[in-house]
Amino acid sequence: MTLDRKRKTKDPCHECGLHKSLCLCHLIPTLDLKTKLVLVIHHRELKRTSNTGRLALKSLKNSEMRVRGEKGKGPLDLSDLLTPNYRTLLFFPSDEARELTPNLVNESSLPIQLIVPDGNWRQASKVSLRHPELKNVERVKISTPNTADKHIRAEHFEEGMSTLQAIAHAFAAIEGFDVGQKLNSLYQEKLTRTLRARGQL
């Protein structure tokens, strides 16, 4: 069970998910980059105030969200993302995934489109299985262990981290250290304010 299921944020900011007294929206950077982020989010994540993926969307101008698993709607089709204008990568640590490094990025002159599944581990793992249009999309991963002693949600794997943390690592490899640092700083602020709201700081 993840930590956020035990706690419901009262009167949350609809943008950052924190209690309005702890809102961090004024700290969200505006990053206009060549790399495109596509967040494929499970519909249940939209209601979770602990979600961090949406903060990445608000930070990155070249980004979009696709919602999967909504009742009454057909299967989400992502085939329109497979465009020759981008080198499309699926960001998920499957067995065949390659380590996302600057050397991998430099293999092509095309800008990168990074597809990132967002949800719990089970929900996110189904993106590559339930979307046959992504069958031939190259998988990439970040294997950096998460050594932090505090998390927004419980992590069950050594490399487990929040969506925003993972995106920060990925964009550091693609766009450079400074971009990754700005996204990671936003995550750290979200973490600090979340723990403060829970009385854990």
Describe the secondary structure blueprint for this structure.
Layout: E1 36-42, H1 53-59, E2 63-68, E3 87-91, E4 98-99, H2 102-105, E5 112-118, H3 121-130, E6 138-141, H4 163-175, H5 177-197
Parallel strand pairs: 1-2, 1-5, 3-5, 3-6, 4-6
Helix pairs in contact: 4-5
What labels describe this entry?
201 residues, single chain, Alpha/beta knot, 27% helix
For the residues shown, what is the average pLDDT?
A: 87
Share of helix, binned: 25-40%
Q: Radius of gyration, rounded?
A: 16 Å
Task: Give the count of structural domains.
Answer: 1
Could you tell me how far the N terminus lies from the C terminus, measured between alpha carbons in angstroms? 22 Å
Read across the widest sheet, the strand sequence of neighbours is 2-1-5-3-6-4
Task: Tell me the structural class.
Answer: alpha/beta
Give a description of the structure.
This protein is of the alpha/beta class. The chain has one domain (29-197): Alpha/beta knot, CATH 3.40.1280. Helices cover 27% and strands 15% of the residues. The chain has helices spanning 53-59, 102-105, 121-130, 163-175, 177-197, and strands spanning 36-42, 63-68, 87-91, 98-99, 112-118, 138-141. Strand 1, helix 1 (53-59) and strand 2 (63-68) form a beta-alpha-beta unit. The two termini are 22 Å apart.
